[in-house]
Design a protein that fits this description.
The chain has 428 residues and is an alpha/beta fold. The chain contains 15 helices and 13 strands.
Length: 428
C-alpha cells in the first residue's frame, strides 16, 4: 500500500492533487484542517490535508493462459525449503494492523512530526525572548489578511503570499517602531545596521534578536549619579518649566539619603517661580536636609562651601522656555561659576509627552549651556516611547533616570534599557 499526504487551500484542491499523482482510483483515508501555529500564525491561512492510499498491484498471470498451460506455471517451483523457517509467535496482538502494512510512510510521518516539533520549539524560544511581541504583531497584521499587493516600508510592492517570513518580520518591526513614534530616519538606520548582519531568508528569531541587540546598543548604558570620595558631587538639574524638575530632585534625594544613607543637601536658584523654593523646602524638612537659596551666580561657591562635608549637593534651577535667551544665559553662567575643585554633573530634565519637534529645539538650546545627561519624566502620561530613542540618537547625550508618577520617592528608576526596547517592539 502506498500512502501519501497532499495539501491544498480546499479539500477539492488537495484531492485533485492526490488523484493527479496517484491515479483516479486513489482512496482518501483522512481529511483534516491544519491551522497555522507559532509567532506569525496571524499571517497564515489554514490548509486542508488529505491522506490518500493506493494498493500496490502485483503482476497476476492471465487465467486463460494458465488453463492452457497449467504445468508451465509450476515447473520451476521447488517445494523443498532451502533453509529452516521459523514462524515467530507475537507476544501480543497488535491493536492496529493497518499501520503495519507499510512502514516507510510511517517513518516519513514521524520525520515530519519531529521537524514540526523542532520548529515549534524554536518559535517558543523566540516568544520568550521578546515576551508579548507576538500580540502586537498579530494586531498589526489583523487588517492585512487580503491577498492584494502591498507596499512595504522599503518601497517594494508584492503580495503578502509572496513575501518571505523574514521580510514580513522586518516589515512588521518597521511598522511597530513607527507606531511607537520612533523617527523614520532612525528606524531606517536600525534596519540598515541589521541588514548588514542578516541576509535574505534569515530566520525570524535571528532577525528579531539582531533588532533587539542593535536597539540596546543605540540606547547605550544609562548613567546614574556617581559619588566621589572625599569631596561633594554637585549636580545641576536644568530644563523647561512644568517637566517636574523639583519633584525629580526630591525623589533622587530620598533615594540617596534614605536608601543609601548618604549625606545630601539642597541648593535652589529658582527665584523666578512663585513658591518654588517653598516646595523644595517642604521636601528638605521631610528628609531632614539643609536648603540654601542662591540669588546670583556669585553666591554659588560660598553656598557649596557651607555644605562641603556633604556627599551630594543637588541644585534646582529655574525652568524657562528654550526661546528665552536671557534666562538661558543666567543658567549657563550659574553652572560655569562652580569652582573647578568641585566635580559637577548636569542633568537635562524633559518630559516624554513633549512634541518631538520641540524636544529637538530644547536639546539644541540646552546643549549650548552645558554637556548633560538626560532624565525623562512623565512616562506614565504617554503610551509611546519613541521620543526617548529619537532624542538619544539625535543628541548623543547619555540617558539616566526616568520617572513615571508623582509619588516621592517611588516613581523613579534608572533607565531600564531592556524594558524600554521591549516596549518599543510592542511588548509589555
Amino acid at each position: 500500500m502506498i500512502i501519501n499526504k497532499f495539501q491544498g487551500k480546499s479539500e477539492e484542491e488537495a484531492v485533485e492533487k492526490a488523484k493527479k499523482e496517484m491515479g483516479a482510483n486513489v482512496v482518501i483515508m483522512n481529511v483534516k484542517e491544519i491551522k497555522p501555529k507559532g509567532l506569525f500564525r496571524a499571517w497564515k491561512s489554514s490548509v486542508i490535508e488529505v491522506t490518500a492510499a493506493m494498493e500496490e498491484r502485483e503482476q497476476a498471470p492471465n487465467p486463460v493462459s494458465a488453463l492452457n498451460t497449467p504445468l508451465k506455471m509450476h515447473e520451476n517451483i521447488n517445494y523443498a525449503a532451502d533453509e529452516k523457517i521459523d514462524i515467530p509467535i507475537p507476544a501480543e496482538k497488535k491493536e492496529n494492523t493497518a499501520l503495519d502494512l507499510d512502514k516507510e510512510p510511517l517513518k516519513e510521518m514521524l520525520k515530519v512530526e519531529t521537524k514540526n516539533k523542532e520548529v515549534m520549539h524554536k518559535e517558543k524560544v523566540l516568544e520568550e525572548k521578546l515576551e508579548s511581541l507576538q500580540n502586537i504583531l498579530e494586531k498589526s497584521l489583523s487588517g492585512e489578511a487580503k491577498q492584494e499587493p502591498i507596499k512595504s516600508a522599503f518601497g517594494m510592492a508584492e503580495t503578502q503570499s509572496e513575501q518571505s517570513d523574514g521580510f514580513k518580520c522586518m516589515k512588521m518591526v518597521y511598522e511597530v517602531l513607527l507606531e511607537n513614534e520612533v523617527s523614520e530616519k532612525y528606524v531606517n538606520q536600525i534596519m540598515d545596521d541589521v541588514e548588514k548582519v542578516v541576509r535574505s531568508g534569515t530566520s525570524m528569531d535571528l532577525f528579531l534578536s539582531n533588532v533587539y541587540q542593535k536597539m540596546i546598543l543605540k540606547f547605550g548604558q544609562p548613567k546614574a549619579i556617581e559619588l566621589n570620595q572625599g569631596q561633594p558631587k554637585v549636580v545641576f538639574f536644568i530644563g523647561p518649566t512644568g517637566v517636574g524638575k523639583t519633584t525629580t530632585i526630591a525623589k533622587i534625594a530620598s533615594k540617596y539619603k534614605v536608601d543609601l544613607g548618604k549625606k545630601v543637601a539642597f541648593l535652589t536658584a529658582d527665584t523666578y517661580r512663585i513658591a518654588a523654593a517653598e516646595q523644595l523646602r517642604t521636601y528638605a524638612n521631610i528628609l531632614d536636609m539643609p536648603l540654601t537659596i542662591i540669588y546670583s551666580a556669585d553666591e554659588m561657591n560660598a553656598a557649596i562651601e557651607r555644605v562641603g562635608d556633604y556627599e551630594l549637593i543637588l541644585v534646582d534651577t529655574a525652568g524657562f522656555s528654550h526661546k528665552n535667551e536671557v534666562q538661558r544665559e543666567d543658567i549657563k553662567h550659574l553652572i560655569a561659576s562652580v569652582d573647578e575643585k568641585y566635580e559637577k554633573d548636569v542633568y537635562l530634565v524633559i518630559s516624554a509627552t513633549t512634541k518631538y519637534k520641540d524636544l529637538l529645539e530644547m536639546v539644541d538650546v540646552y546643549h549650548d549651556i552645558a554637556d548633560y545627561k538626560i532624565i525623562f519624566t512623565k512616562l506614565d502620561e504617554t503610551s509611546t516611547y519613541g521620543n526617548i530613542l529619537n532624542i538619544r540618537m539625535y543628541s548623543g547625550a547619555e540617558l539616566s533616570y526616568i520617572t513615571n508618577g508623582q509619588n516621592v520617592p517611588d516613581d523613579i528608576e534608572v533607565f531600564d534599557t531592556q524594558k524600554i526596547v521591549k516596549q518599543l517592539l510592542g511588548g509589555r
